[in-house]
Design brief:
The structure holds 2 protein chains of 2 kinds. By secondary structure, chain A is mainly α. Chain A has a domain of 115 residues. In chain A, helix 2 packs across helix 4, helix 4 runs antiparallel to helix 5 and helix 17 runs parallel beside helix 19. Chain B is α/β, with parallel strands linked by helices. Chain B has one domain: Spore Coat Polysaccharide Biosynthesis Protein SpsA, Chain A, CATH 3.90.550.10. Classes of the chains: A mainly alpha, B alpha/beta.
């Protein structure tokens, strides 16, 4: 049987090698294409089947997990009588054989995290205790040691949500990881978990803080309770990482850190004009009156983006000392954006003198100027 | 007589050379093309997996309350959309995003589009100062709503510019934010479209030259996502309730083609930063670069590809690094033509647009000064998009010639046909697989299988149509025929009797 099969293959091979090259190539590709197509359909079917089975399995186990959490945590009678750390769970319920499988333990972690999102206070703390008592932290720490960065991120997310401390030795190197996603997750986790120095990684950060990372960190910093907010000017003055400085400027403005004004003003001489624009924006938001004269002084030497920021800043500071400057920019500039911003800043002053000035311009200026003023005055247009 | 013609054909030296050309050069061309598709398939898989891994742990909700979220202007031109305009605008106003405005451009509608908008959204005429950065037909009036619930809405009434490009330019002139999303007002967009499309812009690190202070970061200038057919989907009040592949054959073929072009094609190009085009149906752009590149060209038949080409070309000319990004998620659902007449008009227009772009920007082709744009994007488009229909048509004629003259070697011919057929089916199947890996849009197995079957029928039914209309488009381009714009009448989603003219969207760049 084998010899006849061999003869068949051999004769096919003999016929094949005498075919023209392009026909040989075509035949090889036909086999590859058919094989790849069959594999592709098999994978589609397998993936859909796998997703279906997982869905079914979860649908089966989830009610059981939820029932356990409800009984052990939400309806725990000791919750009102004892401090959380003294409450003991029913070990038999926790040690249910159904909860031993790895995928079930992952499902328990996910469900506890979901519950923690909705429950704060003592219930939240008891959920955390349940996570610890079921030794689920081990699963998360195991994931942290995984070589795949996406698994490490999952671990960091779980530990952060469960408020489990991670040692600096483990997490700080991750805050400088070359993988931007892991780096961001580690930084977020560090800010949330480090009780003493949540911003320590600012000192050692060599990799940039991407705009999206800034968004996440900003949310974490501004919404996490029990976080001690430092004076961010220290990084504005000393950090070599420009993205950290830029982010600190946003935090300074958010926390209205007036003491940071001299450090921010120090950035007005920076070579990077985007950086200067950020600093000017920050000074405006801080209503830093002491910076006004400096801003006016440097105005003519700045690129457009900085000039626009200066005009906005003067409007925000609204000291009333530079109304003439704004008026001149509005009346005599050839740049539409400058005129718009000057007009907005003038109107923003909203003092008797500025109102009179605006009214006078409205009566005496040319059509485009009138249109700009009306535009800026219209409350429907923001 | 017939014998004389036959002898002349056999003895003709021109035909002999043509024969030699088709036997050698075109085989190499065809094999290269198929190899490129195979490489593209691998690249797109890497790109998709990278995207999924990267975004698996991202909490998109974090942006919703953030003061650091960049502003986005949604620009949507409308022409005679009276039937659906209200629900479409309502849908656009409900994006999950903290900082955006919706600019609706009433492009000289002759129906009651504007009146309906004014009544429904309590609009009043406002005196609005703006600078005309891009050319467009005159703007007559600008409206804002007196109801604070609609304070994100801005309506522009302008003279009809006979193209979507003109309307879009008017919208960009009034866009106040750094980024704008360009879409068709009748498209159904995912609620998270703005979040998903702004993310690539926010994932690029800033990089400044320490000596000169010059910005050396790779700037994302545009991002796009997959489009699909909305034809048989369940839609309620501008919201997609349930996705289904179209029931009718023609739009279903298009769905398959879109998946292949977006998921396999554009995601593949994304890996090497050579995305050739961001669809007109859905794309987010950097406003500053878009304006500096001159905005949309209202005379172009492929205005979206033309814009991306000019934006990339602007960046290269100014020695700035750039990226065009794609996300493998379907964020936009659009109506595909259901009749051959409308479909043919759309495809001829796309083909004409491609020829026009290659002609206008010919200096970019093979030009190393334009980097990937000149050496990869344009080279690929020239050889494998522009020339492909011509070579294929030539090949068909040559086949006929061989049959007439009895020179054909049938066993070899059949092997070659099977080769092309199986390869085409494989590429489409891989695209469908990649699509299933990224997100399962279809609920039932039947729907997936129904779509997969199209891959087997396409070479016989759909591809000949594409070829015919592409050649017609080239003919129109060469003869400079006037393009007839169809009447875009809509009767609202859910009404199966409606007849629609598709919006001039981007050619999805067929991959096989």
């Amino acid at each position: 049987m084998f010899s006849s099969l061999f003869n068949l293959v051999f004769s096919a091979y003999e016929q094949f090698i005498y075919l023209p090259l392009f026909i040989e190539i075509a035949i090889v590709f036909i086999y590859i294409a058919v094989f790849a197509t069959v594999i592709a359909y098999s994978v589609i079917l397998y993936k859909r089947w796998k997703a279906y089975v997982e869905e079914k399995r979860l649908a089966f186990i989830s009610p059981k997990i939820e029932q356990m959490i409800t009984e052990q945590v939400l309806l725990n009678e000791n919750l009102e009588r004892l401090p959380v750390e003294e409450i003991e769970f029913d070990r038999a319920a926790l040690d249910d054989p159904a909860f031993k499988h790895k995928w079930v333990r992952q499902a328990i972690i996910d469900i506890i995290i979901q519950y923690r999102r909705n429950f704060r206070g003592e219930v939240g703390e008891l959920l955390r205790k349940l996570y610890i008592d079921m030794d689920l932290g081990k699963e998360s720490f195991d994931k942290l040691k995984n070589i795949r960065w996406e698994i490490q991120i999952k671990a960091l997310t779980e530990l952060t949500k469960m408020d489990i401390t991670i040692s600096d030795v483990t997490i700080l190197p991750l805050t400088n990881s070359l993988k931007p996603e892991l780096r961001a997750a580690a930084r977020n986790a560090y800010v949330q978990l480090s009780k003493n120095e949540p911003f320590k990684f600012f000192d050692i950060a060599t990799e940039p803080l991407l705009p999206w990372d800034q968004l996440e960190l900003f949310k974490i910093i501004t919404t996490t309770k029990e976080i001690s907010i430092p004076n961010f000017s220290r990084w504005v003055s000393y950090s070599d990482n420009k993205s950290i400085v830029s982010f600190c400027l946003k935090l300074i403005a958010h926390y209205d850190q007036q003491s940071a004004i001299p450090a921010v003003m120090g950035l007005l001489n920076n070579k990077d004009h985007m950086f200067r624009a950020d600093a000017i924006n920050c000074l405006g938001k801080l209503s830093a009156e002491q910076s006004e004269s400096k801003l006016i002084e440097i105005y003519n030497t700045q690129p457009l983006i900085c000039q626009l920021e200066i005009l906005k800043a003067i409007g925000r500071i609204a000291s009333g000392r530079h109304l003439e400057f704004l008026k001149n920019e509005f009346l005599y500039s050839y740049n539409f954006d400058i005129r718009m911003n000057a007009a907005r800043s003038l109107i923003r002053h909203n003092t008797p003198i500025s109102r009179a000035m605006v009214q006078e311009m409205l009566e005496t200026s040319e059509e485009e100027a009138k249109l700009i003023i009306k535009h800026c005055q219209n409350p429907l247009i923001k | 007589m017939m014998q004389a013609i036959r002898n002349w054909i056999i003895n003709s030296s021109v035909l002999e050379s043509l024969g030699l050309f088709y036997q050698t050069v075109v085989f190499i061309y065809g094999t290269t093309l198929l190899a490129v598709y195979a490489i593209l398939a691998v690249m797109s898989l890497i790109s998709i997996r990278r995207y999924l891994k990267k975004n698996a742990s991202v909490d998109y909700g974090i942006i919703l309350e953030s003061p650091l979220a960049p502003g986005i202007s949604v620009v949507a031109p409308a022409f005679n959309e009276g039937v659906t305009i209200i629900q479409n605008v309502r849908s656009l106003l409900t994006f999950n995003y903290p900082k955006f405005e919706v600019i609706i451009i009433n492009d000289g509608s002759t129906d009651d589009t504007l009146e309906k908008l004014i009544t429904e959204f309590q609009l009043v005429h406002v005196e609005y100062a703006f600078r005309e950065k891009l050319n467009c037909m005159p703007i007559q009036r600008i409206f804002k709503s007196t109801n604070t619930a609609y304070d994100k809405l801005l309506v522009i009434d302008k003279i009809n510019g006979k193209s979507k490009a003109d309307g879009s330019n008017a919208g960009i002139n009034l866009a106040k934010y750094d980024y704008y999303l360009c879409t068709d007002v009748d498209c159904i967009l995912d609620k998270d479209t703005l979040i998903k499309l702004i993310k690539p812009f926010m994932d690029q690190p800033t990089e400044v030259d320490p000596k000169t202070g010059e910005d050396r970061s790779k700037r994302v200038i545009a991002s796009g996502a997959t489009l699909r057919m909305v034809n048989s989907c369940d839609v309620d009040e501008g919201l997609l309730i349930r996705a289904r592949p179209p029931r009718r054959f023609l739009p279903r073929f298009q769905e398959m083609e879109y998946i292949r072009a977006f998921v396999l094609g554009k995601m593949g190009w994304d890996l090497i930063n050579s995305v050739p085009n961001v669809s007109g149906g859905l794309g987010m752009f950097d406003t500053e670069i878009s304006v500096k590149a001159g905005g949309y060209d209202s005379k172009s038949f492929g205005e979206d590809m033309d814009l991306i080409t000019r934006m990339c070309s602007y960046m290269k000319s100014n020695n700035k690094r750039y990226a065009v990004k794609y996300v493998p998620l379907t964020l936009c659902w659009t109506e595909g033509p259901t009749t051959l007449k409308v479909f043919g008009r759309q495809r001829s227009r796309w083909a004409r647009g491609l020829a026009q772009i290659m002609s206008i920007h010919r200096k970019i082709l093979f030009n190393p000064r334009f980097g990937r744009l000149g050496l990869i994007v344009f080279t690929y488009n020239f050889f494998f998009e522009l020339l492909a229909p011509l070579i294929e048509f030539g090949g068909i004629l040559f086949y006929i010639y061989l049959i007439i003259t009895g020179q054909i070697n049938w066993p070899y011919a059949i092997i070659l046909i099977v080769f092309v057929y199986t390869f085409s089916v494989m590429i489409t199947t891989l695209a469908l697989l990649w699509d299933q890996l990224s997100f399962k849009y279809y609920k039932t197995w039947g729907e997936v299988i129904g779509l997969c079957l199209m891959a087997f029928l396409e070479p016989f039914l759909y591809h000949p149509l594409i070829l015919f209309f592409a050649l017609k488009g080239y003919f129109n381009f060469i003869t400079n025929r006037k393009h007839v714009w169809g009447n875009m009448q809509r009767q609202g989603f859910g009404n199966q009797k409606k007849k629609t003219e598709p919006k001039p969207e981007a050619p999805p760049m067929p991959a096989a």
